[in-house]
Amino acid sequence: MTSPGLSAVAVSASRLLRLLAARGETLAVAESLTGGLVAAEITAAPGASVVFRGSVTAYATDLKRDVLGVDGTLLEERGAVDAEVARQMAVGVRKALGADWGIATTGVAGPDAQDGKPVGTVFVAVAGPGLDHMRGYADGGAEEKAEGRVAALRLNGDRSEIRMESVRSVLTLLLKQLSGEPAGNGRAQDTEQNGGN
Predict the structure, then answer these.
(1) What was the pLDDT predicted at 132?
(2) What's this model's pTM, rounded to 2 decimal places?
(3) N or C, fewer C-beta in 10 Å, the chain?
(4) CATH 3.40.50.150, domain 4-194, yes or no
(5) Residue closest to 125 by CA, chosen among 34, 7, 3, 63
(6) CA distances in angstroms from 189 to 7, 83, 118, 124, 153, listed in the order given
(7) Average predicted confidence (pLDDT) for the chain
(8) What secondary structure does DSSP assign to 158-184, as a single string?
(9) In sequence order, what are the beta bridge partners of 127?
C-alpha cells in the first residue's frame, strides 16, 4: 500500500512529465539529501524516458564542486546546505547533462545538524529557460546574472519524512514554474512544513 505522501509525489512526477513532454523539454536532477529519490520518483512514472536526461547524486561536497560546478569558495565558506549551493547545483546539472531544466535538493535530513544548520533545513532549486535575472550585492557592488529559483524550507518530521517532503517540494517548485504560477523573485523563500504531507 502506498502512503499518502508518496502518492502525492507520484502524482506530481506524472504531471511534471506530461507538462515537459507537451513543451518538448527535458529535465536533469542534482540531489544531495534525497540521495536519488527525486530521480526514482520521476523514472517510476510512465513516459519518463521522453523527458528525463539523468541525474547526479552528489552526496559528497567535493562532487558538488567537481561534477556540478558549485563554487569551491562558496562551499568552504557556507557549507553544502545553502540556497546558493542549491541554485548552482540546479544550474550545473542542467549544463552537465544538456537538459532544458535542472532541479536540485540539498539540506539536513538528520539525525544530526550539518554545517551549523539544524535538521529540517532544506533548499530546493530550479534552473531553466527564462529564469535568468540580475542580482545585486548587499554592499552595493555590481550586479551579476544569476540563473534559477530557490525555495528555503524548514521541514518537520523524521529523516524519511524530511527526505520525501524535499522530493515533493522540488517537483512542486518546477511544476509552478512550468504552469506559470508565481515562483517568487529569485530569492530563497522561507516556508515551514511538516514532512510527509
Answers:
(1) 64
(2) 0.85
(3) N
(4) no
(5) 34
(6) 25, 10, 17, 10, 8
(7) 86
(8) -HHHHHHHHHHHHHHHHHHHHHT----
(9) 102
